Structure formats: structure tokens, C-alpha cells
């Protein structure tokens, strides 16, 4: 029976064979890879991926799609909201600490998915995601550009990231209203150690009013933390590098 795409589940199905091949090539799956696909949908990427890896774990929220997927002998289907999935348990089930996570993500919850996976970054070998191009621009954004913000800092701290493929709306059915792209995310081998919650709070405060000098936002926050260092607050949030934010969070943490 034909599946009617459900908007509330962000269902835009890939139909362009050339794009599907290019994404699978970019992922470069190998036999036996402990791979997890988020939102397999109608299996556009699932089928070529499972042909290469042999067995694939898939996470699908849509009950109708999940029951179709369960008919496939080489798939282990987790019928769930990906935001509720414990990836540590998934890794344990696959007897690995090196998960490869892929997916053409539902765009309405793509940022929460990225932050959910950040909790499990130590168990991840790499991630390849189709996302709204504009979100990838923010993820990989460099300081002093409009795209640089909270997402750039918090993800660049833990991942090396690069856009690997541009994907136009007509590659999907139905076509989304926005351009898409595929991003590769590889956890950084030696991230600077810092309290993640503190870094999140600091970055949130810094970018809360990005047009203003940090003196008005972060300056006040640093006072509440009894920070006595020489961090220059006569700048705007977008002028501070990722390493500087991380170093500042580490200093504030050490002072607490
Ligand atoms: N991978 C397919 C493709 O490329 O054609 C489908 C991609 S579609 C953009 C997103 C998929 O994620 C859909 O299958 C949708 O049902 C599923 N999905 C939506 N929200 C989800 C959630 N919270 N957890 C798991 N899967 C979800």
C-alpha cells in the first residue's frame, strides 16, 4: 500500500538515485560496521546501506513504517522517538564503542537530535546526516560570520565537521521548502576537558543578545561566578573563538 507522507514526522522521502548513491559513497559503509540509521522511512538509504554492512539497526517513530521495516530480515528495528533512545544501550547491544550513526533527519527536530547524540559522543565513530543546509551552515560557521552561534560552538568543541554534499529540494518527495545538505561529523580525538553544562550556559548567555557587547551579557554572568580573569568582554559574542569559549568555561569551572 502506498504510504502517504506525514508532515508531522518531517517525512520528505529521498527519490533521486544519484543523490542516494552519493550519500552512501560519502558514508563509505564497510561489512560489519556497527551502524544505526535514524528515520529510515521507505528505506531509500537503508537498502543500499544494509547491502554493504550486512545488518543495520534502524530507529523509526512512524508505526506503519516500522511494521514494514520489521519484515526485512537484516534490520533490527527500534520503534521509538529517537530523542528517547539510549544510544549507550544500543552500542552495548552491538558490542561496540564505535557507533556509526546516519540519517536523513526529520528537520523539525534536527537540532534536538544533534544535542541528544552529543550526550553519547564518546561512543561514536562518526555521524552523517542530511539536514537543512542552513542548519549545517550554522554548525560549521566560523567566528565573525552571521552563521556562527551556539550550535557552532557546542558542536565544534566536540566534532570536526564538514559539508559533503548539497541536495536540492527536487531530490525528495514531497520536496521540502528549503535546501538540504549532508554533513560529516567526526568526534575530535582530544577535546578540551570542560563541564558541558557550564559551557552550554556560558554560550547561551553570550549569544542571548548577539548584537551587544559581551560586557552587558557575559560580563554580568561572569560577575555572578566570581570570575576574576582577564577575558576581554569589549567584544561581541561572534568574535570569540570556540577555543576561547571552552577555555573560559574551564576557568570559571575551576574558580567555582
Ligand atoms: N530516510 C528516509 C529517506 O531518506 O527517504 C526518510 C527521511 S524523512 C526526512 C525522516 C524520517 O524520520 C521519516 O521516516 C520519519 O517517520 C522519521 N521520524 C520522524 N520523527 C522521528 C523521531 N522522533 N524518531 C525517529 N524517527 C523519526
Automatic annotation (TrEMBL):
<dbReference type="GO" id="GO:0005829">
    <property type="term" value="C:cytosol"/>
</dbReference>
<feature type="binding site">
    <location>
        <position position="14"/>
    </location>
    <ligand>
        <name>S-adenosyl-L-methionine</name>
    </ligand>
</feature>
<dbReference type="GO" id="GO:0003723">
    <property type="term" value="F:RNA binding"/>
</dbReference>
<keyword id="KW-0694">RNA-binding</keyword>
<feature type="binding site">
    <location>
        <position position="81"/>
    </location>
    <ligand>
        <name>S-adenosyl-L-methionine</name>
    </ligand>
</feature>
<feature type="binding site">
    <location>
        <position position="39"/>
    </location>
    <ligand>
        <name>S-adenosyl-L-methionine</name>
    </ligand>
</feature>
<dbReference type="InterPro" id="IPR011530">
    <property type="entry name" value="rRNA_adenine_dimethylase"/>
</dbReference>
<protein>
    <recommendedName>
        <fullName>Ribosomal RNA small subunit methyltransferase A</fullName>
        <ecNumber>2.1.1.182</ecNumber>
    </recommendedName>
</protein>
<keyword id="KW-0949">S-adenosyl-L-methionine</keyword>
<keyword id="KW-0963">Cytoplasm</keyword>
<comment type="similarity">
    <text>Belongs to the class I-like SAM-binding methyltransferase superfamily. rRNA adenine N(6)-methyltransferase family. RsmA subfamily.</text>
</comment>
<keyword id="KW-0808">Transferase</keyword>
<feature type="binding site">
    <location>
        <position position="12"/>
    </location>
    <ligand>
        <name>S-adenosyl-L-methionine</name>
    </ligand>
</feature>
<keyword id="KW-0698">rRNA processing</keyword>
<keyword id="KW-0489">Methyltransferase</keyword>
<comment type="function">
    <text>Specifically dimethylates two adjacent adenosines (A1518 and A1519) in the loop of a conserved hairpin near the 3'-end of 16S rRNA in the 30S particle. May play a critical role in biogenesis of 30S subunits.</text>
</comment>
<dbReference type="InterPro" id="IPR020598">
    <property type="entry name" value="rRNA_Ade_methylase_Trfase_N"/>
</dbReference>
<dbReference type="InterPro" id="IPR023165">
    <property type="entry name" value="rRNA_Ade_diMease-like_C"/>
</dbReference>
<dbReference type="Pfam" id="PF00398">
    <property type="entry name" value="RrnaAD"/>
</dbReference>
<dbReference type="InterPro" id="IPR001737">
    <property type="entry name" value="KsgA/Erm"/>
</dbReference>
<dbReference type="InterPro" id="IPR029063">
    <property type="entry name" value="SAM-dependent_MTases_sf"/>
</dbReference>
<feature type="binding site">
    <location>
        <position position="60"/>
    </location>
    <ligand>
        <name>S-adenosyl-L-methionine</name>
    </ligand>
</feature>
<dbReference type="GO" id="GO:0052908">
    <property type="term" value="F:16S rRNA (adenine(1518)-N(6)/adenine(1519)-N(6))-dimethyltransferase activity"/>
</dbReference>
<feature type="domain" description="Ribosomal RNA adenine methylase transferase N-terminal">
    <location>
        <begin position="19"/>
        <end position="189"/>
    </location>
</feature>
<feature type="binding site">
    <location>
        <position position="104"/>
    </location>
    <ligand>
        <name>S-adenosyl-L-methionine</name>
    </ligand>
</feature>
Amino acid at each position: 500500500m502506498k504510504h502517504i507522507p506525514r508532515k508531522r514526522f518531517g517525512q520528505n522521502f529521498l527519490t533521486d538515485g544519484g543523490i542516494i548513491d552519493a550519500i552512501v559513497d560519502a558514508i563509505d559503509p564497510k561489512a560489519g560496521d556497527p551502524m544505526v540509521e535514524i528515520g529510515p522511512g521507505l528505506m531509500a538509504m537503508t537498502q543500499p546501506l544494509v547491502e554493504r554492512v550486512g545488518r543495520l539497526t534502524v530507529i523509526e517513530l512512524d508505526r506503519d513504517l516500522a511494521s514494514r521495516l520489521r519484515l526485512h530480515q537484516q534490520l533490527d528495528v527500534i520503534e521509538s522517538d529517537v530523542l528517547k533512545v539510549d544510544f549507550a544501550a544500543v552500542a552495548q547491544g552491538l558490542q561496540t564503542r564505535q557507533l556509526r550513526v546516519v540519517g536523513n533527519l526529520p528537520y523539525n527536530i534536527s537540532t534536538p537530535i544533534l544535542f541528544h547524540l552529543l550526550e553519547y559522543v564518546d561512543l561514536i565513530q562518526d555521524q552523517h546526516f542530511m539536514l537543512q543546509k542552513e542548519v549545517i551552515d550554522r554548525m560549521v560557521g566560523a567566528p565573525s560570520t552571521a552563521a556562527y552561534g551556539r550550535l557552532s560552538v557546542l558542536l565544534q568543541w566536540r566534532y570536526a565537521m564538514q559539508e559533503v554534499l548539497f541536495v536540492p529540494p527536487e531530490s525528495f518527495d514531497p520536496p521540502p521548502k528549503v535546501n538540504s545538505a549532508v554533513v560529516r561529523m567526526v568526534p575530535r580525538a582530544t577535546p578540551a576537558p570542560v563541564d558541558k553544562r557550564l559551557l552550554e550556559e556560558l554560550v547561551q548567555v553570550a549569544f542571548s543578545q548577539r548584537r551587544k557587547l559581551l560586557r552587558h551579557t557575559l560580563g554580568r554572568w561572569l560577575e555572578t561566578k566570581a570570575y576574576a580573569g582577564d577575558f576581554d568582554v569589549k567584544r561581541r559574542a561572534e568574535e570569540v573563538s570556540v577555543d576561547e569559549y571552552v577555555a573560559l568555561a574551564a576557568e570559571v569551572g575551576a574558580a567555582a
